[in-house]
C-alpha cells in the first residue's frame, strides 16, 4: 500500500484499514493507505469511516449509511461471518443462463461463440452468488475444466477458462468446496489442480501461466488441495518457475515471480512468520524468503518420499 491511490486487481487480497474507493471515471477499484484529511475526524476519510483495530471489528461504513459487515480477507486472520447476496437480478440471470447454455452446448472449435460467453461468465463470477452458482453446476464445471486442458484447441479459450474458474472460487469458500465435489471420483479421478501443475511445468505463455497461478492459489485455500499440490512436488515446480526465465526477463517474468512469491506467502508461511514480515513494513515477500520457504517445502516432500 502507498499514500496514493493504486488500482486493486482482481486477484489481490487487501489488508484491513485501507481507504478503498471505486473510481467512477475508470470503473476500477482503487486503494491507498489510511490518511485522514485535516478537516475531518481522524477516523474518517472522504465519506468512509475506518475502524482502528481490525482484529476487534473489521467493518467499514459509508457515513450516514448502514452497510453489512465485511470480513477481513487476510488468510492469516480469523474469518468473521458476513452477509452475502443470495440471488442475482433479472438481467444478470438472463446473461448467466445464456452464457452457460453456450458453453455447455458449444463446440470447442467455435471460438467466436465460446469466448464471449466465457468472458461474460468471468465478469459475473466476481459476485459471490454467481461464483457459487457456477461452482454448483457439475456439467458446467466439467466443461470449463475441459476447456482449460492442453487438448483444448485454442490458447485463448484455455486462458479465459482458467480465469473463469479462478474467479469463481476466489475468496469464495463455498464455491471452492462445491467445485471440488465434482472431481476425484471414478469418472473424474483428477481435477483442475493436476491440470495446473502440468501447465506450470510445460507452458511458456505468460498470460496463461499467470492465470494458472491465480487458479492454483484459489484451489490451495482448501487444505486437501494444498496437500495434494505439495505431495505432487508442486513446490519444486514453483521453484523452477521462479528461478528460471520461462517467460523471459521482462515485465511478465516479474509479474509471474511476484505471483509465486504471493503463493508462498499465502500458503507456505506460518502465521507467526507472516506477522513478522508484516511488521517489517508490508506483505511483499523478497527473493531470499521466497526461495527459503520453497526449499523447505521441497525438503519436506523429499523426506516424506
Percent helix: 40-55%
Output mean pLDDT.
78
Number of strands: 6
**Spans with pLDDT under 50 lasting ≥5 residues?**
38-84
Could you characterize the architecture of this molecule?
The chain is mainly α. It has helices at residues 90-105, 111-124, 128-136, 138-148, 155-169, 173-180, 192-202, 206-219, 223-231, 234-243, 251-267, 271-279, 287-304, and strands at residues 6-7, 19-23, 28-32, 44-45, 48-50, 60-62. Strands 1-3-2 form a three-stranded antiparallel β-sheet, with no helix packed on it. Strands 4-5-6 form a three-stranded antiparallel β-sheet, with no helix packed on it. A hairpin with a 2-residue loop joins β4 and β5 (48-50). α3 (128-136) packs across α5 (155-169), α8 (206-219) packs parallel to α11 (251-267) and α10 packs antiparallel against α13. The longest helix has 18 residues, at 287-304. It is globular, with a radius of gyration of 20 Å. The N and C termini lie far apart (41 Å). Residues 38-84 have low confidence and may be disordered.
Summarize the SSE layout with pairings.
Layout: E1 6-7, E2 19-23, E3 28-32, E4 44-45, E5 48-50, E6 60-62, H1 90-105, H2 111-124, H3 128-136, H4 138-148, H5 155-169, H6 173-180, H7 192-202, H8 206-219, H9 223-231, H10 234-243, H11 251-267, H12 271-279, H13 287-304
Antiparallel strand pairs: 1-3, 2-3, 4-5, 5-6
Helix pairs in contact: 1-2, 2-5, 3-5, 3-6, 4-5, 5-8, 7-8, 8-11, 10-11, 10-13, 11-13
Amino acid at each position: 500500500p502507498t499514500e496514493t491511490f493504486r488500482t486493486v486487481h482482481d486477484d489481490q487480497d487487501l489488508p484491513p484499514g485501507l481507504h478503498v474507493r471505486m473510481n467512477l471515471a475508470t470503473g476500477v477499484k482503487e486503494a491507498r493507505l489510511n490518511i485522514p484529511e485535516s478537516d475531518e475526524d481522524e477516523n474518517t476519510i472522504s465519506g468512509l469511516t475506518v475502524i482502528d483495530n481490525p482484529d476487534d471489528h473489521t467493518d467499514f461504513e459509508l457515513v450516514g449509511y448502514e452497510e453489512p459487515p465485511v470480513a477481513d480477507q487476510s488468510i492469516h486472520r480469523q474469518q468473521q461471518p458476513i452477509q452475502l447476496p443470495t440471488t442475482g437480478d433479472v438481467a444478470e440471470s438472463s446473461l448467466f443462463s445464456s452464457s452457460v447454455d453456450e458453453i455447455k452446448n458449444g463446440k470447442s472449435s467455435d471460438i467466436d461463440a465460446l469466448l464471449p460467453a466465457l468472458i461474460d461468465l468471468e465478469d459475473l463470477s466476481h459476485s459471490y452468488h454467481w461464483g457459487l452458482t457456477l461452482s454448483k453446476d457439475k456439467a458446467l464445471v466439467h466443461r470449463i475444466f475441459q476447456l482449460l486442458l492442453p487438448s483444448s484447441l485454442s490458447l485463448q479459450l484455455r486462458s479465459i477458462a482458467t480465469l473463469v474458474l479462478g474467479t469463481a472460487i476466489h475468496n469464495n469458500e463455498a464455491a471452492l468446496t462445491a467445485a471440488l465435489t465434482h472431481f476425484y471420483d471414478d469418472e473424474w479421478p483428477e481435477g483442475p489442480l493436476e491440470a495446473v501443475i502440468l501447465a506450470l511445468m510445460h507452458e511458456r505463455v505468460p498470460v496463461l501461466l499467470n492465470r494458472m497461478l491465480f487458479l492454483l492459489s484459489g484451489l490451495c485455500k482448501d487444505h486437501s488441495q494444498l496437500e495434494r499440490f505439495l505431495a505432487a512436488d508442486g513446490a519444486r515446480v514453483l521453484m523452477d518457475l521462479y528461478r528460471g526465465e520461462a517467460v523471459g526477463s521482462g515485465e511478465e517474468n516479474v509479474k509471474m515471480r511476484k505471483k509465486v512469491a504471493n503463493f508462498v506467502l499465502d500458503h507456505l508461511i506460518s502465521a507467526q512468520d507472516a506477522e513478522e514480515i508484516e511488521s517489517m513494513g508490508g506483505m511483499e515477500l523478497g527473493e531470499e524468503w521466497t526461495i527459503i520457504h520453497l526449499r523447505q517445502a521441497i525438503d519436506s516432500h523429499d523426506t516424506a518420499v
